[in-house]
Amino acid sequence: MGFLKRWVGKKEKHQIGNRTVIIIDYVETHEDDVEEIDKRTIHEIKSNILKLCKINKMAQEFKELIIKIKEGNKLYDYRLGKNAGAAAHVFIKNKFIITLNVKDLIDKKILYACLTHEITHLWHEYSSKIFSKYHKHYKKISNRNSNRIKLTVISKRSTFIAQLRILFFELFRAFLFEGLAKYCEKFYTKEIKLDDKSYFKKIYGHADSQVGLFSLEWKVFIEVLENNRYDKERLNGLLLSFQTLYRSSYIIGYHMVYTIIYTDKNISIEDIAKMNYIKFINTYERCIKLNRFKPVVSLRSGKGIINYFTLIKETKQIAHKLKLFKS
Ligand SMILES: [Zn+2]
Predict the structure, then answer these.
(1) Neighbouring residues of 275: CB distance < 8 A, sequence distance ≥ 6
(2) Ligand 1 centre distance from Cα of residue 154 (Å)
(3) How far apart are CA 59 and CA 96, in angstroms?
(4) Are the C-beta atoms of 103 and 75 separated by less than 8 Å?
């Protein structure tokens, strides 16, 4: 029998000055294969959470922060797959909630990284309402796609195109919010090397190779389509390679945020948090060019290894090719 049954729904309220941090640990499962974690470890996890909430500047902006500790298998991110998401955040009636995977909290360093990452997301929403705006636009684009596509005719292929457009939309926004969270995570855990040319080159290399891989697969896919050699398996294959790219949005976004901070000393993390994704990508493009590097992504200039509007244009061409749009 796992410890988690004994800890179901336990709630603790802590005061840090005039702020409240609520820690809830619970689990919704009664599986017996849950790893045993003793009371002392749980106590240590909680005290580490509180320590970070005390010192983290972004955490200090919240009057009330709710942190839930969950059993890992219950956290699921449809873009990243089971168990890959270490933490999640939700916004319910202006409540700021962070959900953390208990298995990732035993190591203090990982706990600090995970928690800082999620706090950054909350702070980003708090300072610019980025996620609220994003969800509004997301709804719009999903509706628009399902209206324009003949779902009754070739339902599976049209679902594919709709998914693809939503994924591109999500990806380019993820560069901003995952990039910012990754930057802060590395900044607070002191993994970042500021003003370091070789470090700048190293993380450029990571982003460059990830985007390069996808770009190659995308080109092959377009070619296959031109020659009418596509099938369901190939469509699914491309979606899978897209998911790999989405997983890399952290690395790519991190490189983008780092490039801006590295190049333009007048821009702060706070400034980036207030940018919309268009301004963010354009600022990145300006900064990377100043370093005489090819941008890994761009919006409309066509200068990036992948360019948002080119991808959307090509997606539309695919849709026409597959005869998905009405007349
Ligand atoms: Zn994140």
Answers:
(1) 128, 176, 283
(2) 35
(3) 11
(4) no
| Rounded-to-integer distance, Cα 69 and Cα 65, Å | 13
Please, how many CA atoms are within 13 Å of residue 237, restricted to the half-sphere of its CB? Answer: 10
Cα–Cα distance for residue pair 33/40, rounded to 1 Å: 20
Q: What is the pTM of this model?
A: 0.83
Separation of CA 117 and ligand 1 centre (Å): 6
Task: Describe the crossing of helices 277-290 and 155-188 by its angle, rounded to 10 degrees.
Answer: 60
Q: What is the pLDDT of residues 158-182, one digit of tens each?
A: 666 777 778 788 899 999 999 999 9
DSSP-based three-state secondary structure for 284? helix
Which ranges of the chain would DSSP assign to H, the alpha helix? 39-55, 108-128, 130-148, 155-188, 197-226, 232-247, 249-263, 269-274, 277-290, 308-321
Residues β-bridged to residue 12: 23
Alpha-carbon span 101 to 115, nearest angstrom:
10
**In the structure encoding, which two tokens stand for residue 300, read together?**
């409309």
Q: How remote is the CA of residue 66 from the centroid of ligand 1, in Å?
A: 17
Burial of 136 (0-12, 13-18, 19+ CB in 10 A): exposed
Whole-number Å distance, alpha carbon 99 to ligand 1 midpoint, is: 12
Give the Å distance between the CA of 118 and the centre of ligand 1.
6
Residue 250 CA, ligand 1 centroid: distance in Å? 8
Q: Is 132 helix (H, G, I), strand (E, B) or coil?
A: helix
Do 250 and 120 meet the contact criterion of CB atoms below 8 Å apart?
no
Query: Could you tell me the distance, in angstroms and rounded to a whole number, from the CA of residue 142 to the centre of ligand 1?
Result: 22
**Domains of the chain, residue spans:** 3-128, 133-321
- Residue 155 Cα, ligand 1 centroid: separation in angstroms? 32
What spacing in Å lies between the alpha carbon of 178 and ligand 1's midpoint? 5
Please write the tens of the pLDDT for every residue from 195-217: 999 999 999 999 999 999 989 98
Quote the ligand 1 centre to 227 CA distance (angstroms): 39
Do 131 and 177 touch, CB atoms closer than 8 A? yes
